[in-house]
Amino acid sequence: MARWTREHETKVQEIMALLTREAVPFDDMSRRARKRRRNQPFAAWARTYLPHYFSCPDAPFHALADEAVEERGIPVIMCWARGYGKSVRYNLARTLWRICQRDWHFVIVGARSEDVAAENMHFIRVELEHNARISADYGEAVAKVRGPDEDWIALDTRVWARGIGQSPKGARYRQYRPDAFVGDDLEDDIIARNPRTLEKLWEWLMASVWPALEGAGTNAHFILLCTPYGRGSIAARAKEMAEKADEQGRPLARYFEYPALDADGESAWPARYSTAQIQRAAAIMGSRLFRREMLCKIDTEDAPFRPEWIRSFDSVGSDRTRLRVAAFLDPSASAAENRDFKALVVLGRCEETGAIYCLHAWIRHASPGEMLSELQRVHDVYSPGILACESNGFQSLIWPLMQARKMKLAVRAITNTTNKADRILSNQGEFERELCYFDPQEGDQRRLVDQFLDYGRTTVHDDGPDAWDGARRLLPGGRTAEVYYRGAPRESGLEALISI
Questions:
Q1: Cα 190–192–194 angle (5° rounding)?
Q2: How far apart are CA 379 and CA 412, in angstroms?
Q3: CB 160 within 8 A of CB 167
Q4: pLDDT tens by residue, 318-350
Q5: How many domains does the chain have?
Q6: 289 inside domain
């Protein structure tokens, strides 16, 4: 049996008081009237039997969302403004409706822990056992719920609580596999700050829950209720997933975003919140939290590096002749393959515009031998005027290996005298002025962009941004160096020379 928190017990008592006062049986209990009420569409049904939850008219987007969650065989992700009723509507009311209609045989209620999932289920059970309107119209059998708080049966429907990591594989109720999954409260601020935990959460959803459903998910309802905690969150991944399609052209997921304000800046649900109330909430919450909680913005305002600052270009088809080029290697201080990423970044700066172009990025958990091979390749392909390496790594790892291989590369050892965080954050100005260009299709530049956008989050590697900064400092405007890309014309018309 679940152990309820004091907060949960207080909420249940409040609901019981409202339920007893508002959900009283109807005067017309004829067979025809009961049948008409039971056969209403979901939104009308919820308003009829759950007046203590549905106390004001719906917004236009509610009807769109109600239609969207009916689709089977595809993950449906709902990202709504805080307080706009997605949990009540789809975790509680819709699951209760399906149980009463006997449309589902086995539903999994998912949350970040089994106890949280059981709490969500408890609100459904309270309605089944104590809602007089439901009992009067569906019969006394509806109140006969059997089983513990985490796994009970009502009207021949099994409702099962699962927390992150609890595998539902192989689960059955009689001859039925789970035909529905409703996930809510899967993330919080702590989980959202840890990419490893987020990765485990995503794997649990897609590699454990989805295959456990009826038809390996292809004949089941799969609903996720999300808050956009930032890049890497369930909402962000789901949005990216929904932009992809299978071989038949069908999206891999459906993603629906309903912010508190519409396109005109007015309240999206005026029956519940006025525009003035939402604007006041923005002033109280502050920009970062308001964007996340009320506007469903995935990237927060206070991120050191933001997606809208990232510019793209074609590294293969672009004209490099006016670029001054430098490369920097961050080898990590140890030769061990399983520690930090080893990162090598090649940058070119256009003196006319000041823009910095990432010509190549190599960011890998790689062996020292693979790293040196890449270093040689960069030298041969990009001909950087300066090829530099952090001095500690150079002395302890690079130089001995180069001697052993008899490599003849002019690698400059650079001693960093400032804090790494300060060095990386010093790039903010150029990013914000939209002077930094990447080619996500080249090498490991997508990983480099991700490390910039995730910079400052727990356990995120920063070797790529550190290598970027090292190369940037070797370019004009960084340190005193004159470096041209091979073949770049100078005023003399001769092939470029290197002057350091």
A1: 80
A2: 13
A3: no
A4: 888 889 999 999 887 554 444 567 899 999 999
A5: 2
A6: no
